[in-house]
From TrEMBL:
Keyword Chloroplast: no
An example Gene Ontology biological process: acetoin catabolic process
Protein name (record): Acetoin utilization protein AcuC
Pfam families: Hist_deacetyl
InterPro entries: AcuC, HDACs, His_deacetylse_dom, His_deacetylse_dom_sf, Ureohydrolase_dom_sf
CDD domains assigned: HDAC_AcuC_like
Keywords (A to Z) from UniProt: Acetoin catabolism
Family label: Belongs to the histone deacetylase family.
UniProt source species: Microbispora oryzae
Amino acid sequence: MSRAVRVVWDDGLISYDFGRGHPLAPVRVELTMALARELGVLDGVEVVGCLPAGDDELALVHDRDYIASVKEVQKTGRPDLRRGLGTEDNPVFARVHDASALVAGATLAAARAVWTGEADHAVNVAGGLHHAMPGAASGFCVYNDPGVAIAWLLSQGATRVAYVDIDVHHGDGVQTMFYDDPRVLTISLHETPRTLFPGTGFPHETGAEGTAVNVALPAGCGDESWLRAFHAVVPPLVRHFQPEVLVTQQGCDSHALDPLAHLMLSVDGQRTAYAALHRLAHEAADGRWVAVGGGGYELVQVVPRAWTHLLAEVAGTPVDPATPTPAAWRTLVDRRTGEVPPATMTDGREPRWRDFSEGYDPADAVDRAVMATRNAAFPLHGLDPMP
């Protein structure tokens, strides 16, 4: 069995469950892991369990009184609205601390495997809770697992960590935690905060020495435009930064079918982005890659296929997009959700994009968004913002 790739999974991760009717339904990761198993994606990788993050590990980025409040809410079942616990976005649920700490522990296990050399790549599809703030829950996120993992890497001696967030929502919690720390480069590509939660992530938010980078894309942006923006910003900055570890958040709520946002990507466009991040990990971080899930609220048609492609990409065994979804998995989908499952692993797209080096079009809203980011961030890194 290869030790180059590690998938962190514990069935307890589906206990991170805000309850019936909440958009962040744990069935999405249950169906993801089932699809990956049925397609043989996990056959050549090491699947390992994890322990919950301890208080000292959570306190690398979270206030200790906030951790105590989460525990108190778990004990009493009473909301703490000052801490964002018991809101519509973050309802109180049984074992809220235990479940949230386990998600953080899974991402920590992935980071530990990569940092110690036990694995080149490691992934936790149940992670990516990037909105949680140091002292409050936010946006379906109680503990910020990528933030905990990045802070742990720094505590172990890492001097440069790059975090790339491709969720449709701004990675505001992670940005906040490292905004003044030049050791951490945070790059977030997201729908413009003018039309989507959390209302942050403008290009002028540049942090310490330009190490916070935000690409705010217009609603309606599809595969080709999104990939053009990605390649115009992410690879140049990450290659220049030369991180020791690349941490990526793969929220798939940028898909056209996602009910909570307004971008128009396909599963094929998302799969193409995962491949680009994989290449970037090898080009800029000597292959050290920690990947986590994130948002994604089309629970059957999108999340399982997108993140199975992610797992396959991390494993180095990409799934042919034309592959039919297995009959056993389709039966599971029907039993668990009553929905009609997708028949294949593709949306039938073959994304192509025009490289930004071919010229800037000021009449194009995506190009204007890219230039706003390049103008704000590139000079702070000694890079030319012009294509």
